[in-house]
Design brief:
The strands form 2 sheets. This protein has a 7-stranded parallel β-sheet, sandwiched between helices. The protein is built from 12 helices and 12 strands.
Length: 303
């Protein structure tokens, strides 16, 4: 039995119906750990998003499990060593939502530059015109699938793009094709008018945006985070925004998530917080669901 314990796109459900395996679609099962454990006892496959922690303790109660499908690209909630120890295959869809996230970053750039909601309220027309993105510098921390797509689109807008990624080399064709100038991390922080984060959470990147690194940023710069909330010290960001050192921020991810309603950042007009939606376009969800379900079914057929 295939157990789907979180939301799955209709395209994925359609493939499950056609797949020839019994399945249960319980999109709210993550809210009921006891029922999850009971159903897992009979499951040969488990499909989750990011709310269920797939670790050794969970797997102990799933003796028949052969494959785990992760709907998304991040694997923060999946203990891959625990899966390998039990010969459970992991299926996920890296890059499937990269286009959606890249377009969200573009939307954030335009929002910060033109702020149409504020302009719609009226006032001094000359003061509400905003500024142009052409000629500005976009700094990217992380140059994977999303970062490179953002770079290509920003270059098309006439922006200069600089980036940092310890896994990239200056001579790589992917960087040349995207028009990215590879720089040391400190230089990316100091030269960017807009800093966009696309790095995974690691011991080296957690708290990467902090009082020290924020102080390196040029006065009036902007921060965009669609990666992981742990990359940003939210207290330090609040101070930088409140004091006017940064002109604004768009956060699609926070830590914790969601950010408490009484968090000081929520009281700042210069900080826009969205509920982790950058990669949740209809098209991206269809791609993710299709790829993960296809992978799960292939594993079960081969078992």
């Amino acid at each position: 039995m295939i157990l789907v314990a979180e939301e799955l796109d209709p395209r994925g459900l359609e493939l499950l119906r056609e797949g020839g395996h019994a399945y249960r679609y319980e999109p709210n099962l993550w809210r009921d750990p006891e029922s999850l454990r009971k159903m897992l006892a009979e499951a040969t496959a488990l499909i989750v998003r990011n709310r269920i922690r797939v670790d050794g303790a969970l797997l102990e109660g799933a003796p028949r499990l052969r494959v785990v499908g992760r709907l998304g690209t991040g694997l923060d909630n999946v203990d891959q060593e625990a899966l390998r120890a039990r010969n459970v295959v992991l299926v996920y869809a890296p890059g499937a939502n990269a286009l959606g996230v890249a377009e969200y970053v573009l939307a954030a750039l335009f929002h910060l530059a033109r702020n149409l909601p504020r302009a719609a309220q009226g006032g001094d027309r000359l003061a509400l015109g905003g500024f142009e993105l052409a000629g500005k510098t976009l700094g990217l921390v992380g140059l994977g699938e999303v970062g490179l797509r953002v770079a290509q689109r920003a270059r098309a807008l006439g922006m200069r793009v600089v980036g940092y990624d310890p896994l990239r080399k200056p001579w790589e064709a992917a960087l040349e094709g995207a028009g990215v100038e590879l720089l040391p991390l400190e230089a990316v922080f100091s030269e960017a008018h807009f800093l966009s984060l696309h790095a995974p959470p690691t011991p080296e990147t957690r708290g990467l945006v902090n009082r020290r690194t924020l102080a390196r940023m040029r006065p009036g710069a902007y921060l965009i985070n669609t990666a992981r909330g742990e990359l940003v010290d939210h207290g330090a960001l609040y101070e930088a925004l409140r004091e006017g050192h940064l002109a604004g921020a768009v956060l699609d991810v926070t830590h914790p998530e969601p950010l408490p309603e009484d968090h000081p950042l929520r009281g700042l007009e210069t900080c826009l917080i969205t509920p982790h939606i950058a990669g949740l376009t209809r098209e991206a969800q269809a791609r993710v669901g299709e790829r993960v379900v296809q992978g799960v079914l292939e594993v079960l057929r081969a078992a």
